[in-house]
Design brief:
The protein is α+β, with helices and mostly antiparallel strands. The protein is 42% helix and 8% strand. The longest helix is centred in the N-terminal third of the chain and has 16 residues. It is elongated, with a radius of gyration of 18 Å.
Length: 212
Amino acid sequence: MARYTDAVCRLCRREGQKLYLKGDRCLTPKCAFERRSFAPGAQAKKAQFKRNQSEYSLQLREKQKVKRIYGVMERQFRRYFSYALRTPGLTGATLLVVLESRLDNVVYRLGLAQSRAQARQIVRHGHIVVNGRKTNVPSYLVKPHDVISVRPESRSREYFRTVVGEFMGERPTPPWLSRDSEALTGRVLSRPTRDDIDIPVNEQLIVEFYSR
């Protein structure tokens, strides 16, 4: 399973904005983007004074931004786009809805993890059950009425007993999800809509990129 293993703060700097890939750390002065908001590389400062970006460059950057926010590699992202293209409705909005429905993202949205990368690890380590069945596939797509919870054997772990309780109640729950902070469970009330997805992205540029 391919995944990005380099410093994630470089990704925020490359996109020129915070992607909140490290959770709460991104809100502190320790965030690398606060200290160096320019793109990584020896020629980064010079490059930012060059001519305006081309249309292709804007489309590429938007695609890369969404991939990095959700932690998806190129091949899988293309599959999601192909599915969105075949589905009736707006292709860009459908693409974001599919990404938002991933199990690792739902675990993050429920407040069981401080970042999507941490949520992915929690799922991979078998701490999450969906409808009573252990599910260790981060890309699993949840459906309305699915119940997501922490595995009973994992609830006694230090992380779920103390750490989760400190920030689970502070993160607002999207309207398409409900959660029980005491029981460490959540329910999918409906499919997310474009209005429910709060990431700063122009999905039409992604559609244009793949439609070239």
